[in-house]
Specification:
about 280 residues, alpha/beta, 6-stranded mixed beta sheet, 3 helices
Length: about 280
């Protein structure tokens, strides 16, 4: 009886090992994670690898004799890659799950000037090198190395996605249309030269850290301070605190020095809010 049990256990372990091998694999220098029996998502490129001038995500990959359809590009998929020499990224028609922060990278300044989405893609499209959902209601990703200093978001866009303009090195001004309703976390993070963004009255919510590390933005640029996100357990915040939270986020420690002169003079309640609720969630990290 024990022998039969051990044999069954060994068979089960071998099957689990085989499944693990096919659930996460590297092909052509890109790592994929299995979503289903015949579909995968691009996850994390090999650490610090220098990506080519034109990064073309394949529509299909073959691994161990099995053909997989590439359906997604995951959160921070290329985070640890060197994209300084990558000028164009091509996205196939098969990708229907594209995280807006997929092309953020910590290893180097991105060199991407243009995104190209296959015209047959049912979910996404590109307009002048910028990725949108096909219905044009969400701006997904702006090419961070694009040299324009002013960008007009098209009328009809309702959501500025997480990291949509992250690291855009040349932007001085972004003009949002009245249709915009939501600005997600880190939407404009690390736009070092950004000096002006209008926030229309129709914007109902601006998530934490939307303008993190936008060093050139003036302390009181927001036309609609009521758009700032409140945590449901807090009382309404004053306009000064809302503006500071949007621009600078919360302190990492209780005794952290003020990040800007504008923080000085905040009430104890406001400082507590910034320390506790200004931090990004684990999901956002």
């Amino acid at each position: 009886m024990l022998r039969v049990f051990l044999i069954q256990l060994l068979v089960l372990l071998s099957l689990m090992t085989a499944a693990a091998k096919t659930s996460d694999f590297v092909c052509g220098g890109i790592r994929y994670v299995r979503l289903s029996a015949n579909s995968v998502s691009v996850t994390v490129e090999q650490d610090s690898i220098l990506l080519p001038p034109v990064l073309e995500i394949p529509s299909h990959v073959v691994y161990q004799g099995i053909t997989f359809t590439v359906r997604g590009i995951s959160w921070h998929a290329f985070w640890d890659c060197d994209m300084s020499g990558t000028k164009e990224v091509r996205i196939p028609h098969t990708v229907t799950r594209l995280h807006s922060s997929a092309f953020d990278c910590s290893y180097s300044q991105s060199g991407v000037l243009r995104f190209v989405v296959d015209s047959l893609n049912p979910v996404y499209c590109d307009v002048d090198g910028v990725i949108y959902t096909r219905d044009m209601k969400r701006l997904v990703r702006y090419p961070p190395a694009r040299r324009d200093t002013i960008f007009d978001v098209p009328e009809g866009v309702e959501v500025i996605s997480e990291s949509a303009f992250g690291g855009a090195m040349s932007l001085l001004q972004v003009k949002l249309p009245p249709s915009v309703r939501t600005i997600e976390s880190w939407a404009f993070a690390s736009c070092k030269r950004l000096r002006h963004v209008n926030i229309p009255n129709g914007v109902s919510i601006v998530y934490d850290y939307a303008f993190d590390h936008c060093e050139k933005l003036p302390p009181a640029f927001c036309e609609n301070p009521m758009a700032f996100r409140d945590d449901p357990v807090t009382e309404p915040l004053d306009e000064r605190t809302r503006t500071h939270l949007l621009l600078y986020g919360g302190n990492d420690k209780a005794d952290a020095p003020a990040k800007t002169p504008d923080e000085q003079g905040l009430s104890e309640k406001s400082r507590t809010y910034l320390k506790v609720y200004g931090k990004p969630s684990e999901k956002q990290r």
